[in-house]
Amino acid sequence: MTTRIIHTDADVTEGAAWLAGRVPEFARALEQVGPLPLRRRSGGFPAMLQAICGQQLSVASAAAVWGRLCDAELTEPEAVLSAGEQRLRACGLSGPKVRYALALAEAGIDYDALATTPEDEAIATLTAVKGIGTWTAEIYLKFAIGRADVIAAGDLALQEAARDLFGLSERPTEKAFRALAADWSPWRAVAARILWAYYRVQKNREGISE
Question: CB–CB of 126/139 below 8 Å?
């Protein structure tokens, strides 16, 4: 079966309509969150390096580090390898992330091939690189390639949104969340967009009430 790729807002709208017609909780969430974002980005080595930059950082902090790497023209494998640890640290990368960036630059991943590789194999290729976990690999497949059926089950915001929306007694584990999301195939990436949007709405409401 051909893997569905999200290219446009119309694809997201189609997936949202499919989910709303089958999962009442998603229909309810969509009434609250409004139009969903496309959230597509360019792929390749720069996208994976940017994902590494963003690990365990706020959006603003990650953007600042990435901006410094871009200003220093350290966004391609050859440049990263020739830069050395000191220059990479000067851009804001921690010691572990410097090692991850160098490992990624040395990995020689065929990013074009990832676009058509089965998802399990693509994730295995990416997670074979030091510092790239399943969450980072799935985020890349979801937004850089546009895979429509990738959920990123280890994402804490998605888990918390699912707990609230589906009335769960506690935040689901990654394994439990994957099991819950099985019924959302083939549009799990759109389900994630709904849950992220729902999470933001709920957090904003909490902020207002405080």
Answer: no
Whether pLDDT at 207 is above 70:
no
Note the helical H segments in the chain.
Answer: 9-22, 24-33, 45-54, 59-71, 77-90, 95-107, 111-114, 119-127, 134-140, 156-165, 174-181, 188-209
Query: Per residue in 128-173, pLDDT tens?
Result: 999 999 999 999 999 999 999 999 999 999 999 999 999 999 999 9
Tell me the angle at which helices 95-107 and 45-54 cross, rounded to the nearest 10 degrees: 160
CA neighbor of 32 nearest in space, from 157, 159, 160, 165: 165
Whole-structure pTM value: 0.88
End-to-end CA distance of the chain: 49
**Measured between alpha carbons, how far is residue 209 from residues 202, 204, 205, 206 in Å?**
11, 9, 6, 5
Instruction: Domains for the chain: give ranges and CATH numbers.
Output: 9-38+150-209 (1.10.1670.40), 45-145 (1.10.340.30)
